[in-house]
Amino acid sequence: MALAFDEFGRPFIIIKEQEQKTRLRGVDAQKSNISTGKAVARILCTSLGPKGMDKMLQSPDGDVTSRLRIGDGTTGVVVMAGALLEQAEKLLERGIHPIRIAEGYEMASRIAVDHLECIVQKFEFGVTNIEPLIQMCMTTLSSKIVNRCKRSLAEIAVKPVLAVADLERKDVNLDLFKVEGKVGGNNQNVKFVLEDVGANLVICQWGFYDEANHLLMHRNLPAVRWVGGVELELIAIATGGRIVPRFQELTPEKLGKAGLVREKSFGTTKDRMIYIEHCANSRAVTIMVVGNKMMVEETKRSIHDALCVARNLIRNNYIVYDGGSAEISCSIAVEAAADKFPGVEQYAIRAFADALDAIPMALAENSGLQPIETLSAVKSHQIKENNPCRGIDCNNTGTNDTHEQNVFEALIGKQQQVLLATQVVKMILKIDDVISPSEY
Ligand code: ADP
């Protein structure tokens, strides 16, 4: 096997004939990819929803790397994609071409996304009324391992997001946020307090050459080297400084400003971290998580999800009721629309409607309810009352009205989930040649 490049510099792999162990073409290639996708979805299916089970990932060397609990809509996307693949398999069996399936799925996804806009509710909040946003983030955090501190984590996410949000333009730049983690806990501060004017701290992405090192030491100037590019940009934004390629290009107006820079070490580890505080421009935020390895990683992911929820609602403050109710409502709408398509796509559109049902069924099953019975009952309830809020009562609250249960999702989040699942499946369906070299 050799790596080569075409005339545009794009890499490709040349496999010698004798190395070629398996080659799957056409429907066989699609079926093989479909079964891989379905296997991933099957694993994640049982972790969907508030009663879903966590997954433990073990690396080949035996290290437990993380518990899989995604929580930003990703599990839902995978479950939906798995259901779309399962339906596609049946359509392939019936001789429908994968491209026609992909086209039908695309049409159905547009029907579902448009339908979501017909069942929205407005979500009111503001700078002086942040409680609804906090509540929304708390809902997201409920399904996480860190749910015991969901209130404080939700506040940690919402307050800085609102501080940097441009509510007029309905935008938040999440690049201004960095969620950092450190294993350990004890703090020992080594302080260097900044003076008022002149460069009294140098921060560099790379190392310093000898002459610079000598100069810095001679002037007694503290310096930090090997700082990541992203971090350097955030520091520049926060302090109002400019990144310069050479010392010679430094001028007073390019200097950034911060009130305090201190170094903190973490417990028994030798890790240290530089804190840059009281910056000129507080629009760059670093959220620092300290704890044991697994908790740090889980908390970082959870805060990231909460930040995304808050960002989505600032961009567009419409919500749809969830707990499977939005998918059921879309499934009804897509099913009804299928009849209007005269061609073969209508099979794929109906299949899409069936795939949408996979989410409420998984939620029901994970909550100990009978999936098919529960789905049929809720669906007929929705149709009878023309009420898109009927969903799955995962927490046994006594009502399947997700409005009353207060379970909802940002409209754009739900739309993205539907679109993403569709795109992933379309990509898989368009692969018709799988070559696996013998090394694998
Ligand atoms: P994801 O990674 O997709 O966000 P989660 O495990 O967080 O996965 O599950 C999200 C799903 O669980 C959504 O369909 C959401 O509507 C549903 N859900 C969350 N909380 C509740 C609840 N209290 N009652 C019913 N459904 C819920």
Verbal overview:
This protein has 440 residues and is of the alpha+beta class. The protein folds into 3 domains: 2-121 and 321-437, GROEL, domain 1 (Orthogonal Bundle), CATH 1.10.560.10; 126-168 and 292-316, no CATH class; 185-289, GroEL, CATH 3.50.7. Helices cover 46% and strands 18% of the residues. Strands 6-14-15 form a 3-stranded antiparallel beta sheet. The termini are close together. 35% of the residues are buried. Bound molecules: adenosine-5'-diphosphate. The site of adenosine-5'-diphosphate (ADP) has 23 residues, from helix 2 and helix 11. Adenosine-5'-diphosphate binds next to helix 2 and helix 11.
List the topology elements.
Layout: E1 2-5, E2 11-14, E3 20-25, H1 26-45, E4 55-58, E5 64-68, H2 74-93, H3 98-118, E6 121-122, H4 131-142, H5 150-164, E7 177-183, E8 187-193, E9 202-203, H6 210-218, E10 223-224, H7 229-239, E11 258-266, E12 272-279, E13 285-291, H8 293-315, E14 318-321, H9 325-338, H10 345-356, H11 358-366, H12 371-385, H13 402-405, E15 408-410, H14 411-429, E16 433-437
Parallel strand pairs: 7-13, 9-10
Antiparallel strand pairs: 1-2, 3-16, 4-5, 6-14, 8-11, 11-12, 14-15
Helix pairs in contact: 1-2, 2-10, 2-14, 3-9, 3-10, 3-14, 4-5, 4-8, 5-8, 9-10, 9-12, 11-12
Adenosine-5'-diphosphate (ADP) binds next to helix 2 and helix 11.
Pfam family, one: Cpn60_TCP1
Protein name: T-complex protein 1 subunit epsilon
Keywords: ATP-binding, Chaperone, Nucleotide-binding
